[in-house]
Design a protein that fits this description.
alpha/beta, 39% helix, 506 residues, binds nicotinamide-adenine-dinucleotide, seven-stranded mixed β-sheet
């Protein structure tokens, strides 16, 4: 991989093609890049420019089958028997190599997804390296519990690898979420088949270049590209050789995967949709709360499962908060993701942009709430961006709780505003959605913050902040936001099989 890649604005397209982009994203099976058996490929569109610069091999049942065969062979080989410490050394090297190639990977991610380069460079890719470093260390320090029975027997529960595991990931944080699953799966001695989102195949493909250099044996990591239903995703879920599926994506896809995995009784982990909220009480530090709530709504163009896409504010301070929020929104700069001054890039695709616009048109047409800003495709973008998937950050006030805008995941730069009078009302509004992933609460009253945090039906609650993470903690959601948890020991548990060995008393 061409490390240390600087982007050259003069002849950008040709330069990037040579430095970052392959002519085709191929599958990575048994340590080699391969095309699909039938040669099928689809054109990948770069969302900021609405242009296709490369193709992606379209995998299906036969590529998944080849990947499972390679992964089964590797699972029977040394990888599963290597000591956790030796595996950790190799995984740390993967993290180091990601760091060494941060600019190349960040450029690729930014082009592929449309998100600002400054965010992939300083956020997504460093975090991908951290996922490897973190799980390498955590897995190397695992211990097993032993109990002694009344008769002197000794009972030890040990963990073993599951074998071949399937990882299916979304497009909103491509390498970040792929490595969040890859690192613990590998640390526990499994072999994997990763099916990246068809909209963002690039960084997973580039990552494979680094694996051999780090010392990961052939067949331990395989990547199969393709689509979901009736394609590579479904074939992976249905394959009898795959023991577990770790999936992050839409809630409805989770249901489909659960149905398809039922016959094989596969172990499943689901991180699904969200409908987060930023809740601001009347004693909050608004210098902190308003800019953070603005970031929570619009970072990554609002395409984060943890996004605070609902602002729920105490009625006494609502006018002041909205005025300050709109000032913050004005500072958001929409533009070319590769431009250092851009703070909002492109959405993932034009049809996703149209889906988001559909929600706003619904609000406009049905007179639901009041659109305070945005609500359209930005005018005046440079010529090379005019066909890109851009949409203005949009704020819609006075939206009733039973509206589609509150109840459904929009997954774009649309923030609704609602007001409350009491703590109980704030809790009811926050919890009154089908999702239960995350929310933030802003108040100077510690007891109130605790009462709120313990009462809401959300898997994660931030007090006076947003998206502050420690990788040891349980990550995941309640209700339609998921099943199971990732992070720390929860990931290590998911990617292992427990076995209890008992020695009879003497
Ligand atoms: P998606 O469900 O459309 O696709 C995710 C992945 O699943 C892709 O790789 C896709 O090809 C595959 N897939 C689709 N149908 C499949 C099927 N029937 N069988 C097997 N695989 C299938 O999701 P998306 O649009 O890529 O991502 C956005 C969604 O992800 C949002 O709902 C967002 O909230 C959610 N998300 C959740 C978290 C979390 O941690 N809870 C994190 C990021 C994104």
């Amino acid at each position: 991989m061409g490390s240390g890649c600087k982007h050259n604005k003069g002849d950008r397209k040709e330069f990037l093609r040579q430095q970052v982009l392959p002519d085709r994203c191929r599958h990575f099976i048994n340590g080699r890049y391969v095309d699909s058996a039938d040669g099928e490929a689809f054109k990948k569109v770069l969302p900021a420019y609405n242009e296709s610069w490369f193709e992606v091999a379209t995998g299906g049942a036969s590529e998944v089958d080849a990947a499972v065969t390679a992964a089964e062979k590797a699972a029977a080989g040394p990888w599963s028997r290597t000591s956790p410490q030796d595996r950790a050394r190799i995984l740390r090297r993967v993290g180091d190599l990601i760091e060494a190639n941060v600019e190349t990977l960040a450029l690729a991610e930014s082009l592929d997804s449309g998100k600002p380069y400054s965010e992939t460079l300083n956020g997504d890719i460093p975090r991908s390296a951290k996922n490897f470093h973190f799980f390498a260390d955590l897995a190397a320090h695992q211990s097993f519990e032993t109990w002694t029975g009344e008769d002197g027997s000794q009972h030890t529960s040990i963990r073993e690898p599951l074998g071949v595991t399937g990882l299916i990931t979304p497009w909103n944080l491509p390498l970040y979420l792929a490595t969040w699953k890859l690192a613990p799966a590998l640390a526990q001695g499994n072999t994997v088949i990763l099916k990246p989102a068809e909209l963002t195949p690039l960084t997973a493909t580039l990552l494979c270049e680094l694996l051999g250099e780090a010392g990961i044996p052939e067949g331990v990591v395989n990547v199969v590209h393709g689509f979901g239903a009736k394609s590579a995703g479904e074939a992976l879920v249905r394959h009898p050789g795959v023991k577990a599926i770790s999936f992050t994506g839409e809630t409805t896809t989770g249901s489909a995967i659960m149905r398809d995995a039922a016959d094989g009784l596969k172990k499943l982990s689901f991180e699904l949709g969200g409908k987060g909220a930023s809740v601001i009480f009347d004693d909050a530090d608004l210098d902190l709360a308003v800019p953070t709530a603005c970031r929570a709504a619009f970072r990554n163009q609002g395409q984060i499962c943890l996004a605070g896409s609902r602002l729920i504010v105490h009625e006494k301070i609502a006018t002041q908060v909205i005025d300050r929020l709109l000032e913050n929104v004005k500072k958001i700069k929409i533009g070319d993701p590769l431009d250092d001054t851009t703070t909002m890039g492109a959405l993932i695709a034009n049809d996703h942009r149209d889906k988001i616009a559909g929600f706003v048109e619904y609000a406009r047409g049905e007179r639901v709430g009041e659109i305070l800003c945005g609500g359209k495709i930005p005018a005046g973008l440079p010529a090379h961006l005019t066909n890109g998937a851009f949409y203005e950050p949009t704020v819609i006030a006075d939206v009733p709780q039973d509206s589609r805008l509150i109840q459904e995941e929009i997954f774009g730069p649309v923030l609704t505003v609602q007001t409350f009078k009491t703590l109980e009302e704030a809790i009811a509004l926050t919890s009154g959605v089908p999702y239960g992933l995350s929310c933030s609460v802003y108040t100077r009253d510690g007891a109130r913050a605790q009462k709120f945090a313990r009462s809401v039906r959300m898997g994660m609650v931030w007090i006076n902040g947003w998206f502050i993470r420690d990788l040891h903690t349980a990550f995941g959601g309640m209700k339609r936001s998921g099943i199971g948890r990732e992070g720390g020991r929860w990931s290590l548990d998911f990617f292992s099989e427990y076995k209890t060995i008992t020695v009879a008393g003497v």
